[in-house]
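Exam prep: given the inputs below (a chain plus 4-O-methyl-alpha-D-glucopyranuronic acid), describe the expected output before reading on.
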Amino acid sequence: MRLVHHEQAWLNYNTVCNPNYKKYATDVFCNQIDEITRSAISELRAAFQNLFDKQIVATESSGQAAIKLLIVRNDQLGIEGFQLDIKEDEVVIESQYSIGLLYGTFHLLRLLQTEKNIELGSIVEIPSQPLRMVNHWDNLDGSIERGYSGQSFFFENNEIIINERTVDYARLTASVGINGVVINNVNVRKEATQLITDRYLDRLKEMKNIFSAYGIKLFISLNFAAPMEIGMLETADPLDSSVINWWRTQLDYVHGYIPGFDGFLIKADSEGRPGPFTYNRTHADGANMLADIIKPYGGIIIWRCFVYNCQQDWRDTVTDRARAGYDNFVPLDGTLHSNVILQIKNGPMDFQVREPVSPLFGGLKATNQMLEVQIAQEYTGQQRHVAYLLPMFKEILDFRTHCDSAFDTVNDIVSGKTFDQPLGGIAAVINTGNDENWTGHDLAAVNWYGFGRLSSNPNLLAEQIAIEWIKLTYGNDEFVIQQILSILMPSWETYEKYTSPLGIGWMVNPGHHYGPNVEGYEYSRWGTYHRADQRGLGVDRTSKGTGYSTQYQSLNALMYESIDKCPEPLLLFFHYVEYTHHLKSGKSLIQHIYDTHFEGVEEVASMLKRWRSIEDKIERKIYDRVLERLQHQYSHSTEWRDIICSYFYRKSGIQDVHNRQIY
Ligand code: GCV
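Solution:
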């Protein structure tokens, strides 16, 4: 009897495995039974039932068990690592703590489903990032900011929901190594401010217990003005003693109620949110005050660096939103307490389809840091377009900051290795909701899966991760794998081709951020942000322009400063370039814009064709859902192409050399 009764993404366990593996589907022995190892055993039960139609039991004698889960002393495995030994007739998973056994179990199940012939031998895996988190932007009324997969499954009508889906969510999350979840939006509005009050603590505790059984830490977003909004104080000044006392009483209470509560995420002084600037205090004053209060409990404050003045007048040549993160936070380097982590968006702007890596990485040398990426596809097609983002995340993690260390990549820095920092990691703004398939677009689940896998093991290749996900979700048919892989792999760059060119960003409709609108930037009352005119387009961010390029360590600063050395995909981010300027391909900038937009649409047409070619191999419901989205993507990509091409044709007056219909 199969156990699956609703969609469980890559944990459906409906693949066809090598029948040889059935020999492992006997009893399981574990030398330490606790909430986490119970989760591992129940996962093995569900999987073996579905994969092999075999019921397995947990036994107390290791003798007859083919699967052995053993807590051992082996310092090399750290806290979350495991060693998996696959032998002819048994599998032994060892780790120092039960979370390693759970990760090892998921790894074994992944191998059984994706490898035709598993090699006998030993595998050791140790997650390299201390924190591997997802951030939900869920509101308590059930809506999700930038959510494209239905409503929240954590909140509805200002109540916390706990049901079967909460457990499935924890399973999916832990199965890819994610170990931290922030359940509510960083824009903490009225009701959510109350999450730290009696009204919600029972339910939060229940949720924490479910998450703990999967090794997941529970965080919530705080409202910096809570002392005023729920404490009735007249100020939220972080150095005011009444404010400090209020926070202490409130957070002591939370920790008393929910022992081991993990911590808080804060967005302050950004896009209308309150923060320390109102009181002429620094962000270190704000973060340290909260961090000191929760330090005795082992709690963590994650403080976002997405701080900029959205109302700034950029008509002069130096005012530049891109500079804000560095300008605000580098002066604070070394002043943040040991249980504060700064969370930094991958680029200096806002999750555009292409941005340079934030210069805060490499600029901050004495601060715990986390990278923040967005798998909710706010600016990359909102889960109506396919955009496999792992190739982008790989580029970001591998980026060399040249910060004067042998370990100078973003990955090294956020793992804490470069500057020997105790805390760090990666967070993703997640793409889930209560849609049956979790992510709206069925193919968008690969970004959730992939984010977890990559943050646990940055050495994995984007292609490897995609293949794993396809096999776990759609089975081992070689033709299906190749077709879906060919849709996914180029999809981020395909999306880039028919949308905003060469790093310039935006060109979407203000507010909802979907669909082409070349001048559509909410804060554009000071003129177009992309500075296009009759001669060219792009923003001069060199030392002669806004000076943003000088925020990088010298080798990178020199690279971005020079129009010839600047990587071409970022050309318009760093330089104002004339339409007639020749790119490395030999094409003029304007011809490049025309050609890439036509190519992008053709590539979507070929995605559609590939999907159609596997019609009889994919469950009908899923096939139709994806087909409908790909059809939309195709027509929407033509709209993008036509609007962008005609805008630049009208600006430049330069004909397309191929005389295509673009205006
Ligand atoms: C949660 C962008 C998004 C906002 C989001 C903000 C942030 O501006 O459009 O919806 O707010 O980023 O990251 O805080």
